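Entry:
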Amino acid sequence: MGCPDAAPSGREARFSTLRIVPYANMPEFISASVVNRIADLTSQRDPAHLEAALLAAAHDLFAPEWLALYRRNAGDAERIDFVIALRDGELERSAPAVSYADLVDAPGVTILPIISRAQQLLGYLALRRARVLAEAEIRLAAGLFRIYGNTVGLLREAQFDRLTGLLNRHTFDTRLDRALELARRTSRRRADGGKLMRFFLGEIDIDHFKGVNDRYGHLYGDEVLLIVARLLKNNFRKSDLVFRFGGEEFVVIVVAESCDGAQLSFERLRGRIEEHAFPQVGRITVSAGLTEIREADAPVQILGRADQALYYAKNHGRNRVCYYEALLDAGMLEAAQAAGDITIF
């Protein structure tokens, strides 16, 4: 005798509501290349590459003449900034002559809002195509944008420190490599008589932080970290990169016209932290080691120099900013030599 059918429960019940769509009913324009593009989109770990992958997937889906990605300006929600475009298979990072406002009413141009699953507006995709997008294509675009939004969310979680909201140690290597590449481009620009940009890296360490945790507990220690992180964000510009490097240590990559300008920004931070009244804890100070990022540097060399300057500050009274190159010129430090992945002082 057969057993009576039992009502699905638990995990089976959840899956019993799924609707299986026959393959024959799938839209004709979903091809293997599109699936591969979407897979490429979700594999990206760099925001710039993710944006390029989004354009490539949209290009394969809709075959437009041209398409571009725009997003709201971080400081001015009314302003829409150009990010990247794709034309004739080539990525373009220079803003087009036509403004976003002009594109909105341009013939043959469709503007699609990129909205995440959490209903946040991430930006806009503009595309030019003679044939108007069909309703099914618009729904497909919405699905693509959800995948993009989910990937953006995962990237943000992976790149930011959960406690302070600053960039984390995992993100540092990629950002430093980018700063080195910019330093090399700047060197070439300087040779051509162009504007000089100089990059500096500073390591910042909270003085006697272990004593805070031991005396007041980790809850107050975390509050100190949160306040220092906020002071860091308020002190440096949005173009500067601020990282929580681990524990009570932070790293900042700044752009300045001179070493004096870079030192001034770190000295200003040191003063603001010293003057801030931390709840329960009272007075907190920081020490910092600063060095210039040079075009021929390897990352281990940059960090080694900043470490030396920071250790000098720690060993000579704390609550101070020390510039590696100045200490070296004054004979207060010996040059660091990099051997493989180990810095020897």
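The two ends are 83 Å apart (CA to CA).
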